[in-house]
Each structure stands twice: as C-alpha cells, then as structure tokens.
Amino acid sequence: MTDTSVMHIGLDDTDSINGGCTTYLAAVLVEKLVQVPAVHFIDYPALIRLNPNVPWKTRGNGALCLRFQYPTHLTDDIKQLVLTFWEQHLHTNVKGTNPGIVFYQQKNIPQELTDFSRQAETCIVTLNKAVKLIRKIGAEALGYNNCRGIIGALAAIGETLTGDYTYELIAYRTATNWGTKRLVDKDSVFNMDQLLQPQVFNNIDNEKNRILITPRGFDPVLFGLRGESADVVKRAFGIVKSLEPVERWVIFRSNQGTDAHLRQVDGLNKLERYCSVILKGVVSKNPKIVPVRHVIFSIKTSFCEIDCAAYEPTGDLRKAARELVIGDSIEVMGAIHKDVKTKFLTINLEKINILSLNQNVVTQNPRCSACAKRLKSMGKQQGFRCEKCGEKFVSLTKQTTVIPRVLHTGLYVTSTRSQRHLTKPLRRLGQEKRGVPVILIDDWHSP
Ligand code: ATP
What we know:
Largest sheet: 10 strands, mixed
Helix content: 10-25%
Bound molecules: adenosine-5'-triphosphate
Structural class: alpha+beta
Number of strands: 24
Distance between the termini: 29 Å
Strand content: 25-35%
Radius of gyration: 27 Å
Shape: elongated
Number of helices: 8
C-alpha cells in the first residue's frame, strides 16, 4: 500500500490593488491538485480573515489554507507544482505586495500554532515570531519583498475552524472581463436571499436596496455567496444569475461572520492599538454628536474610562448609541484606535450589547404660568424669572421629568454594508456551529 501524508499549504498577500486575489490562486491550485493521482482534500479550502485593523492590508486581510492527503512519494512534485503556480500569480512588482507561502506536513496542528492564529485574528503579530514558530514546528516558508505574507500564510494553517464557522462560494470571472463592470442579475440575488434566509447572510443590503456579493476593483472575483453550509451556498449559486461567464468557482470554509476578531479584555495593558475588544462597563458620559454625524460617548469599566465612537456609516448602531444615557450598563465591541499625538484611546464601535437601561431623568427649569415659556434661574435658591413677561417665581424649584426610553436591551450591530468580514451579523445568532465537517459535499469546486 502507498504511504500517505497530509499537507497544509498557507497562502497570503499575493495580490495588489492592481489585481489578483489569493482566493483565486487557491481556486487554481485546487483544480491542479485534484488532478494529481490520489490527492484527496481533507477539508474545504479555508478562507481565514485575520485582524481587520492591520494598517498594511490591501482589502479584507484574507489568508488561505489548502489541506489534503497525498501519496508521500509525491511530496516534492506537489510542492514544485504549487510553487510554479504561486510564482505565476504573484504581483511582486507592486509596492505593498509581500507574498508568503508556508508548507506544513503534519496531520495535526500544534496548539502553539492555533494560539498564533488566534493572535493574528485579534492583534498584531511580528514576522519574527512567525519565523521562529515555523522553525520550531518544522514547517517551511518562502516569501518575497518584506515577506510579511508569511504571517498570514502561517496563521491560515493554524486556524482549523473547530469553533464557529461559515461558508462562502466564490465565483470567478474569465480573464477577458477582469477590470470591467461585473454583470450579475440583481433581482436574482434578492430572490436567493428571500428563499434561503436565514441560512445565507450579508449578501444584500436591504436598507440601501443594494447587493453586496460583488466586490469592486480589478480582481478576478465575480461574486461571493455567504451561508451556513456548503449545500446552501451551492443552492444559492443555482439561484443567482450571472450575466457574464463564470470561469471557475470554489466553496471555502471560513471564519467570516463569526466575531473571531473580538476578545474580552480585563486590563488596561490589553487595550492595544489595532486590536479588537469586548469591554463591559457603564455609560459615564452622555452621547454627543460630533461632525460629521458621528456619536461619541464614554464608558467606565472596572479598570478604565474610555471613549466609544459610532461613526455615521454604522447606521442602526449609531442611532442606538445616540439614545444611551449615563448609568446604562452595556458591553461594547470594536477596534481600539490610538491617537498618535495625544495617545488617547477610542473604541471604534462595531456592536453594542445593552444589558440594562437606566432611568432617563432630566432636570429642567419650570415654565411660566402665564406664557408657558421656560423660566430663567435667578441664582441658587433665588427662584426663577420669566424673560418674556418679567414675572418672578421665588418659591418654584427645578422640575425632574422621566423621559421614556426608546432603546431596548439586546444587541445592536453596525449596518450590513459597514460590517467587517469577521463581524457576526444578527441573522447568524443561534446558528453558530462547532467542529469540522468530516465529509465534503460531492461538487465543491469547478473545474
Ligand atoms: P486580500 O483580502 O485581497 O487577500 P488583504 O487585505 O488580505 O488582501 P494583504 O495584501 O494580504 O491584504 O495584506 C495583509 C498583510 O498583513 C499580509 O502580509 C499578512 O500576512 C499580514 N497580516 C495579517 N494579519 C496580521 C497580523 N495580525 N499582524 C501582522 N501582520 C498581519
């Protein structure tokens, strides 16, 4: 019997703003690898989104991993085949493209590597750390330019998606159409969402009546369909009508829509720039609206007081933030922003979970009994005066009014169009999964 081994191949940073896409390279490699005798994929290709706040990402900070079983004697041939296509797809001449590829040939992923991936999803990791780990676990890596892509390539191998996960079917355009307007029948996308919800998510923006499946730019992606199972994204593919030829498609398993980038922090030293956090606290400063229509408020936690910002495009989240009052107990989720000059920290909000609402009590001056105009105070315990009638009311005191709250407890999430790839949308609540699928569906790629 032939000896078999398992190979994990991590890929990142092959593309540039001028075109290319690492998922496309993965799709081409799938086509080539399944033609190698006895190569058998042990999982869907993984599309792993890493820390969405890294300043040097091109778009969505995605990295890829292919995992397959193969006859051991073909190790060198397979690596050579993969490297040939990898080299062909690189945009190394473009500044900011720093490709990396990692090969790892052990069946099981060591805990240290899983931990590394978790860090790469939530924070910043260094190339030095990646290289040390590669040496320690006996993996092999190759990179170009500053080689930063090795970080993402390694992290993609270490994220085995044993926690929550989702799927995305990505369809690609023929090369002659790259750079032109993407032609997809919009109604068919709305129809698909109607038929398959809540099993599909983030494919349309109902508020703006727009489809979200087509990216912009010169890359080869025609569209991506997101859902809860390989079957459902395949069904979605059967419903969505493309008005241009599809060159190939692949189903990826992914951490998209799972909140994998968020982590609970319990100390000031954990509030690092570029990290995404979950913080529990009480509203300590009422929201104020700052140009241009952004909402800022503060919360006090057990270890700090910090500003939270809901920017204009966050839609419903911003509307909810505007209604918070001092004393509301909440959990905020978002990215830490550090002002370079002042070192002041702000959380750029993605979600607010309202745990309990405080009474909204406002204290106001009483009204004039003659003209109903709000009175002016004449000083502490000196009574009030009506500016219109000139009447004085020395015995009146301030009035307190309880304003009914329009907010409810529960989760408020940024609008679909401004959600990060990793943000878990409301539609996914209750659909979280665990574990790795043992059997792949029959047709998960073409060709
Ligand atoms: P695309 O989504 O089209 O693949 P991108 O947004 O993924 O593009 P890249 O061009 O891959 O952007 O650039 C991201 C770079 O950041 C990669 O080199 C990757 O290795 C690196 N990187 C990813 N996560 C981290 C992290 N947590 N810390 C440090 N570097 C990271």
